[in-house]
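Onboarding guide, step 5: your first structure request.
Type a short instruction followed by the sequence, for example:

Predict the 3D structure of this protein.
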Amino acid sequence: MNDPSRWLGLALFSLSLVTLASRGEAQGARTLQLHVIDSLSGAPVDHAEVRVIQTVKDTAGWGTRLVTDSLGRAVLHAPKDEQLLMVVRRLGFEANSFFVPPADSDDVLFVALAPKVAMLPATITEAKATSSRLTAAGFYERQRTRPGAFLDSAAIADRKPLDILSVVRGYIKGCTVFYADGLPVVSLGDIDVRQVVGIEIYSRDLAGPPEFPNPFDTEHRCGTIVIWRRL
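The system replies with structure tokens like these:
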């Protein structure tokens, strides 16, 4: 019990433990507490992936991998004497990478992730106004199936006409016949251009619909002009 060599051995063992403890404390880790937030709303971002490269020179592989909790928090233990490269990312956000310099003390870090806005291709919708009057008259159906010039009220208004003749003058031949609201007309003087909602212009009788024939076109070279007015 009183062997001096035994007491010396215990003393040396105790000294080695103290030395190892102090060395471990000097080379120990510090605690980093991360708070990941939305850069726009400031709300915590849960399930964000936190990856750490233990040293900035070691890019061959990732070191620590963590995931934030429901409050956007993640706690990791990092070496005190190493600079860290950290990357935080989550689906729907832009990734954020940053350096954490070496330090002896614990630290709290706030990491803001910017929402990633999905860029959608531009959508162009074209809409063309239709007239129930022209629909009932078969104007649009003939526009789809027959060769000719078709002017609706918008196209007529764009010409800023003084009268109906100023709209159709360029299409008239000596044997052209006219119809207004489905009936033959001899003179255009009684037609108020402000009441016209559609005009069908056929350069030859064969191009025109059979319900609006040109009786003077024996050689099929004369045209037909059909005018539709508001009811």
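Each response can be followed by summary notes, for example: Residues 132-229 form a domain with the Ferric Hydroxamate Uptake Protein; Chain A, domain 1 fold (CATH 2.170.130.10).
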